[in-house]
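Exercise: predict the fold of this chain.
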Amino acid sequence: MIHLSVAIGRFVEALFFAILRVAGAVTGAVLLVALAGFILFMTARWLIARGRKARR
């Protein structure tokens, strides 16, 4: 009976770490997309402001 308990414990531990790994990858991807969006937003804002100054 002890062997079954150890096997179940190891399975739960492996499942837990697999979930954490996936959650970490998703979090990293979301942060990367957010950073890219912020950079694009700031670049577009800078280009628009630069275009308005050139018209004056």
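Check your answer against the key: The chain is about 95% helix and 0% strand.
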